[in-house]
Amino acid sequence: MTDQYDVVIIGAGPAGLAAGLSLVRARRRTLMIDSNRPRNAATLRSHGFITRDGVSPLELRKIGRGEFEGYPAAQFHTALALSVTATNVDEISGDLSFHESRFRVVTRGLRGEASRDVSARTVLIATGLLETLPALPSIRAWYGTNVHSCIDCDGYEKADAALALIGESDDLAERALLISQWTSDLIVFTNAVGTVTAADEAALLRRGIRVDRRPIADVVGERGAMTGVLLADGEVIAREGGFVRPGWAPAIDYLDASVLGQLERDRDGLVVVDDQGRTSIAGLYAAGDSTPPGAEQLMVAAGLGARAAAAINRDLIGPL
Q1: Positive or negative CA dihedral for 36, 41, 44, 50?
Q2: Distance CA 305, CA 251 (A)
Q3: Do 60 and 141 reside in the same domain of the chain?
Q4: 3-state SS class at 154
Q5: E strands, 45-102, where?
Q6: 76 vs 34: CA distance, rounded Å
Q7: How far is residue 27's CA from residue 72's CA, in Å, rounded to a whole number?
Q8: Helix (H) or strand (E) run with residue 249 in it
């Protein structure tokens, strides 16, 4: 290992980019690793990000990367993170004196870039979530255009339309309440899996929201527009668009088993952090969607990244 960094950031979404910008402005030698495979790649417009409302997520990432790379301490590496290991497992939970490198990061270069093997005093997890949609044949075709996952992000664009909420989780009633702010014509589809209690169904019905518990065959449409939800019994329920509740898991499979074994996570597998983004492992930080409560708006993720960067910079200075 010949390359040594103050910080290695894994992931160049809003959390990683915001953290990176803060750190290079603090003159911390920072390597940002990203595979250019964002979870929101299918989304055409992002919303709620101040000064950038309506911009595409890809453009937002491009702008953020350009700002990060404008500083001498910045390096950007297009690659997959293959492994993050602690260089001294016995000291993995030691004090906050980061005078020497504590982590080894190995990558596989993409788009013609060489693979790398570097060391880092600190590492920031900013890789977000892996997303699993209900197993419907055509749902990916509508995802990001007619069907979305972020209610706060895309509710306004779906106002007053006939909408579906499709999911297989136990939080569908709460999500339906949020969607009802934008439309009075909403049906919750559980695909015979998702949980809506009888009490919640009655409460939703009082608000004009119906629950359909039958299995779904597919999401259908024509001429580039969603037209309905096809049920397994052959009935098509007319819908103009809607929301889906994916399954989510943190994208941290690159962490070595010795690191994962000591990393505190919640019941959903999300990385537990303190109020500054510090994990249970000294020198390892996390920000954005991989931390509780999970998927958030871009603006929130960016704020969490900036907050973690402040903690990293202070910890690198060491004690008084």
Answers
A1: negative
A2: 16
A3: no
A4: helix
A5: 74-86
A6: 8
A7: 8
A8: strand 247-250
Which amino acid is it at 152? D
CATH code at position 260: 3.50.50.60
With 0-12 / 13-18 / 19 or more C-beta atoms within 10 angstroms meaning exposed / middle / buried, residue 23 is buried
Query: Which of 95-104, 178-187, 248-257 has the weakest average pLDDT?
Result: 95-104
Peptide bond between residue 72 and the one before it cis (omega within 30 degrees of 0): no
The angle that helices 14-25 and 57-69 make with each other, rounded to 10 degrees, is 20
More confident site: 93 or 203: 203
Site of tokens 């982590």: 103
**Per-residue pLDDT tens for 155-176?**
999 999 999 999 999 999 999 9
- In the prediction, which pLDDT does 1 show? 47
Provide the pLDDT confidence category of residue 2 given band limits of 50, 70 and 90.
Answer: low
What is the C-alpha to C-alpha distance for residues 203 and 197, in angstroms, rounded to an integer?
Answer: 10
Nearest in space to 165 (alpha carbons), one of 221, 206, 223, 204: 204
pTM for the predicted model, two decimal places: 0.91
**Residue 207: per-residue pLDDT:** 96
What integer pLDDT is reported at residue 64 of this predicted model?
A: 96
CA dihedral 305, 309, 310, 314 (to 10 degrees): 150
Domain range enclosing 148: 134-245
What pLDDT does 219 receive? 97
Q: How many distinct structural domains can be found in the chain?
A: 2
Report the alpha-carbon angle 111-47-130, nearest 5. Answer: 50
What pLDDT does residue 134 have?
96
Residues 98, 112, single domain; the answer is: yes
